[in-house]
Amino acid sequence: MTEHTKTDGLPGMDLPVLPAALDRAPLRNDRMSTAKVECNACPVLCQISDGRTGACDRYANRDGVLVRVDPVVLLRRTLESGTPSLVPFARPGAGTGDAADAETGDGTAPSTAPAEWNGDLLHADEVFVTGVGSSTTYPDYKPAPFIVASKARGVDMVTVVTEGIFSYCSFKVKIDTDRFLGSEQANVRHRGEVVGHVTTAEYGSQMLSLGGVHHLTGGSKKEGRMTNEVMQLLGNKRPVECTIDGGASLIIQAGKPPIVNGVEEKRMRVGCGSAAIGIFARQFAGVADEVVVVDDHITGVLTEHQAGRCLDMTGSGIRMRGRKSTPGRYFQVANPGNGWGGTDIDDPLSIIEGWEEGVARPGLRLLMTSTTGEHAQWYVLDEQLQPVEQPMPEEVRRIVQRIGENCEPSMCSVLFLGGAGGSLRAGVTENPVLLTRAIKRALVNVTCGGAPAYVWPGGGITIMADVLRMPHDSFGTVPTPAIVAPIEFSMRREDYEALGGHMSHVFSLQEALARGAWQPDGAPLAGRWLQMDEANPWPLGQPPMLG
User: Of the candidates 91, 58, 88, which has an alpha carbon nearest to the alpha carbon of residue 73?
Assistant: First the structure.
């Protein structure tokens, strides 16, 4: 075993350039037990006893050999009946526990390749090796664990595959709700520790920024651990409970409705109050004399609004609270909250100051509704010009229901945002700035677990990816603390050579599958086939998503 690496690939790879990967590790010092192996996949340098895993649960000691616990995830455009679903050897117990007999990491029994499968790869451009389970380039000087040559539409391609150890990373969470979650800049806590903050709200959604280097490494050890935990759970599409200082308690999970103060959200608003007035004005005209759409942002009043005026609607004489913006559009009619339209009101009449005599008239028909249609009441003015609640006419109810129909289901969206630093770039080339320049020139396509990644403009390689489009359990952790996430760089072979890539470490897709992804001795295969998400473009031959 040379000093090059202990964590690339799998036992018995026997590559001509890469030393035998995950081989028996040398002792770090004379006092370390001979029954232990040392893992150098991160700066912790765990000394792992036989049958145990390291602190990250990603590497284990099996009979004195350092092995990778998680399988490499391999994508195909379509899975066929003969294609195996692969898992690694039985996962040992957690760092100080007993080895688990015949169980994989998720507690299910391992599966093996069907006997009839003969290993035929069919077409090389149907297979993509992802960074999920691939191992890392740490320490930074060594090439990425998989530098794979393949063909795409007849073009020679190279994909550099690795798992990055990210300290500079965060998750941006979009929560579809009008409910008040917390003031901008308010702390978000998980198990009592600050793990992020509320950021600027967007149209129909509240936004959180969770994680980041300052929470991972800039606070207490517990803050770093809780931040790491939240980020791994969110990235792996699992629920996270958190609270916001001065605001709500939340359960958030990618692709699922948010649960705010114990209540599951149902709808994302069709628009602000003004937009709802404009969209449905023609339908309201003739069945209501005035319509108020209550909204924490912009509350709309139909007869004053440009839409009502264009329909020649007569003014109602209504006088609204709040700050008038432009005709029919009012700011700050109430405080933010969990009531009507994201305000703190339960009684919609509380935002009406009164009615102008000589303009308002008895019998005037008033509809008040929220931006989602979840709240709606129908009133008729009496002789004293006081609104009296009445049963809502069916033709009006249908319009309110249409507002609801136009509201999309409320859900949480989770985007991984990370900066690719030294170890990632050094694993690709000895001159990392050339990789950065090649990405900005659209010569390199960056993906995360095969999912498209948006590359931010400006310096460095700052990427953003939707975790819902990534394979399940794409994210791991190391106790430094930091997040482990997959990343792949795909480009033409000639471009890879031009940017100073590690050409002596390039091996074919067939070699990668035969030597790098599977056990060679007939043991259960240590890779896992997945079908490419239909929402994702095929990573090879696609233009990068550049800012």
Answer: 88
Q: Do 244 and 189 touch, CB atoms closer than 8 A?
A: yes
d(CA 172, CA 214): 15
- Which helix or strand (DSSP H or E) is residue 81 part of? none
Cα 146 to Cα 180, 323, 364, 528, distances in angstroms: 47, 60, 73, 16
Per the CB < 8 A criterion, the answer to whether 403 and 369 are in contact is: yes
Tokens (6 digits) for 493? 């072979």
What tens digit of pLDDT does each residue of 28-63 get? 444 555 678 888 777 788 898 888 888 887 788 888
pLDDT computed for residue 36 by the predictor: 87
For residue 32, the model assigns a pLDDT of 52
d(CA 44, CA 56): 10
d(CA 278, CA 272): 10
Instruction: Give me the amino acid identity at 338.
Output: N
Hey, which bits of 312-375 come out as E strands? 318-320, 323-324, 329-331, 352-355, 365-370
State both tokens at 329.
Answer: 């559009």
The gap from C-alpha 348 to its chain's centroid, in whole angstroms, comes to 37
Q: Which residues of the chain are under the pLDDT cut of 50? A: 1-30, 81-122, 517-525
What are 124-169's pLDDT values in tens digits? 567 899 999 888 877 767 888 889 998 888 889 999 999 998 999 9
Instruction: Calculate helix-pair angle for 394-405, 273-284, nearest 10 degrees.
Output: 140
Please tell me the distance from the alpha carbon of residue 508 to that of residue 492, in angstroms, as a whole number.
14
Quote the CA–CA distance of 365 and 356 in Å, as a whole number.
Answer: 15
Q: How far is CA 134 from CA 34, 84, 125, 403, 531, in A?
A: 27, 18, 20, 48, 18
Residue-wise over 349-387: b if at least 16 C-beta within 10 A, else e? Answer: eebbeebeeeebeeebbbbbbbbbbbbbbbbebeeebeb
Which single residue is written with the structure tokens 């404009």?
278
One-letter-per-residue 3-state SS of 470-530? CCCCCCEEECCCEEEEEEEEEEEHHHHHHCCECHHHCEEHHHHHHHHCCCCCCCCCCEEEE
What is the rounded distance in angstroms from the CA atom of residue 61 to the CA atom of residue 66? 5
Residue 231: count other Cβ atoms within 10 Å of its Cβ: 31
158: three-class secondary structure by DSSP? strand
The confidence score (pLDDT) of residue 92 equals 28
Please give the order of strands across the beta sheet that includes 545-546. 263-264, 259-260, 249-252, 240-244, 187-190, 193-202, 205-211, 169-176, 412-420, 461-466, 454-455, 545-546
**How far is residue 38's CA from residue 177's CA, in Å, rounded to a whole number?**
48
Which residues have CB under 8 Å from 455's CB, separation 6+? Answer: 439, 440, 446, 461, 462, 463, 544, 545, 546, 547
**ω into 391 cis (within 30 of 0):** no
376-381 and 365-370 as β-strands: parallel, antiparallel, unpaired? antiparallel
Quote the CA–CA distance of 54 and 70 in Å, as a whole number. Answer: 13
